[in-house]
Amino acid sequence: MPELITQKVPVGISACVYSCPVRYNGKSFDALRTLGREKTDFSFTPVCPEVMAGLGVPRMPVHLTGSGQEVLAGLARVKDRRGRDVGEQLVAGSRVCLDALERAGVRAMIVKEASPSCGVFKARIGKRRTEQVEGSGVFGAMLVETGWFLIPDSALTNPLLWWDWRRRLHAWLWLTDREIARAKDLYDAWHVVKFLLQETSRPFADAMGRELAALPKNPPTEMLEAARRQMLEALRAPSTRPRIRQALWKTYKNAAKHGKLDGVEMHDLTVDSPEVTANMMRIVDELTKLERISFENDLLFGTSPVLARDARRVRAREVENDTADKPARSEKE
Predict the structure, then answer these.
(1) What residues form DSSP beta bridges with 14?
(2) Cβ neighbours of residue 313 closer than 8 Å, sequence gap 6 or more
(3) For the chain, what is the mean pLDDT?
(4) Which of 274, 310, 304, 273 has its CA nearest to residue 291?
């Protein structure tokens, strides 16, 4: 049975991809439109560091002379089209946004990738769109330091990518909150998340397995927490499309093989081959519908070792099961 997260997940999001018209030209994107009803599983806090920097809307676009990490270290600058240095303002606006997210209890963030402020995995350096290098924007660099789970907005434009990011997000949150006081707790947690880690990086997963097997009988807390941090960092790392497609097909075939869950007929699974790209999108759609059907019938089917379920529905199911397990009272009683 999968593990459960029953609290609504608070997620930060770059305001410009949350339909807020805060871009330099007053426009916005709706990155969440593809999620449909799944949006209700999260609580969103939109922020815009450039607006909080006092740069206004509309405004001149800004560019970096180095990565966001270099800006924070005083080794690079943030300039607008007129050459004015706005780095100090952008750093201040980023800190205001970070404070707001912390007050909201956010530990996961959807960022506008390639932005000079919010970009995380690649930052646009210089004035040209093609000038992207490894590194983050200014706000993105601050987010990296928090250790939160960071998701590029591009993950929401492709059902295949979102399927992968969502699975790892739920596992990351579960592992972050799990109590690990002894070696057995760590072993049990490892057996829940190891298949996701094997999908992302098999060499890391194999090395992690060997490291856990070599733990002393009663390892110190520092050793347990160090292993947990390694797992969490691996869950945060972006995967590749070939790996995601392979993991999806394996999950799909396993679901198709069983056919029923708790005696209930599941959604028909119709794809025979993963070779066609369109088929992969249909697989994601069918598995997502299957998860929704199982959710509505209080079943715990899912394509992740950790599922998010509404706490009220989980409690109602537990009460129903407890009632069913109790022997019926006789008329004399």
Answers:
(1) 47
(2) 295, 298
(3) 83
(4) 304
Distant-in-sequence, close-in-space partners of 301: CB < 8 Å, separation ≥ 6:
255, 261, 266, 290, 291, 294
Query: Rounded distance, CA 91 to CA 242, Å?
Result: 37
Domain that holds residue 306: 159-326
What per-residue confidence (pLDDT) applies to 62?
93
Q: Are 180 and 191 in contact (CB under 8 A)?
A: no
Least confident among 3-7, 23-27, 86-90, 137-141: 3-7
Residue 310: the pLDDT is 66
Picking from 156, 184, 212, the residue at the C-terminal end of a domain is 156
What DSSP designation does 114 have? Answer: T
Task: Verify that 190 and 314 share a domain, yes or no.
Answer: yes
DSSP assignments along 146-173, one per residue: HT-EEEEGGGGS-HHHHHHHHHHHHHHH
Nearest-angstrom CA–CA distance, 287 and 303:
8
Does residue 333 lie within any of the structural domains?
no
pLDDT (average), residues 44-65: 96
pLDDT at residue 244, rounded to an integer: 81
CA 118/CA 213 separation, integer angstroms = 40
State how many domains the chain has. Answer: 2
What is the phi-psi region of residue 169: left when phi exceeds 0, alpha when psi lies from -120 to 50, beta otherwise?
A: alpha
Kindly state the tokens that stand for 235.
Answer: 């869950």
- Terminal C-alpha separation, the chain: 37
Residues 312, 166 share a domain: yes
